Every structure is written in C-alpha cells, then in structure tokens.
Amino acid sequence: MPLVRFSVSIEKELVKKFEKFLKLDNYKNRSKAITDLINNYLLEKKISISGNPTVAGVITMVYNHHKRFLTEEITHLQHHFIDVIISTQHIHLNEDKCLEIVALKGKYDRINELYTKLKSLKGVINAKLIISD
Ligand code: NI
User: Fold this and answer.
1) How close is the Cα of 64 to the center of ligand 1, in Å?
2) Is 62 in the same domain as 105?
3) Which residues partner with 102 through β-bridges?
4) Are residues 74 and 120 in the same domain?
C-alpha cells in the first residue's frame, strides 16, 4: 500500500513518554506504533458505529480450579456459546491455577457476552478479550 507522510503537533512531554514506552514495547519506529494505535482506534469505532460486526478474537483467562463448581460453570457456559467458539486450549499452570485460551469468531456482541460472563465467575483471577477484524 502507498505510504503518506503527515505532520502532527504534539506536546513535547507526551512524545517523550510515548517514545519511552515504544522502546519497552520493542517498537523500532514511531510509524509502526502509530499505525497500531490508529488501527485499534478504527476497530473500536467500527464496533461502536456498525454495532455488531463479525470479528475474530481470543479470550485468555486464568482461574483457580479448586473453586467449587467453577470448572463445571466454565464448561457449561462454553457449551452455550459453541456458535462462536472455534477451539479452546487448557493449560495447567500449577497446583491451583489453570490458563484457558478460547479462540472465537462471530458477532462482536455474542463474543462480548461470553467474555462478560466468563470474567465475572467467582474464582476467575483475570480474563482478557482481544479482538481483531
Ligand atoms: Ni487445569
């Protein structure tokens, strides 16, 4: 794709902070970092404007499998969302914790509904949803 150069004016302090974190994130140049920011912004806008686009995504969650009924609840929920779940991967992290990765494709609202339900279960230590179009 053809590239365009454009100039923007940003407060010096903000650029300093931005560049500090670019290094931590291993970005080799500003262009790639700003392209990623714009793409994320556009995806968020697309979801909020078009309402309910078809997206691909991943839910990662870490939970305590000793929590009573939690494993059953997670399995139960996933069976109710087989229309958007492509696959799941389960990793036993240690004596207590499990990591589960759920690959998804489907309408954003449906995927977000599953995410909201999973993350609010008692015993789920953290859950994240990553979306791509
Ligand atoms: Ni496990």
Assistant:
1) 9
2) yes
3) 59, 88
4) yes
- Alpha carbon distance 63, 32 (integer Å): 34
Q: Is 69 a member of any domain?
A: yes
Tell me, in angstroms, the distance from the centre of ligand 1 to residue 115's CA: 19
Q: How much distance in Å is there from the Cα of 8 to the middle of ligand 1?
A: 49
pTM score > 0.90 for this model?
no
Contact 106, 54 (CB under 8 A): yes
Percent of the residues in the chain that have a pLDDT greater than 70, as a whole number = 100
For 1-133, list the strands marked E by DSSP.
54-64, 85-92, 97-107, 124-132
Residues 36 and 75 in one domain: no
- Tens of pLDDT, residue by residue over 51-81, are 788 999 999 999 999 999 999 999 999 999 9
Neighbours of ion ligand 1 (CB under 5 A): 92, 98
Enclosing domain of residue 99:
54-132
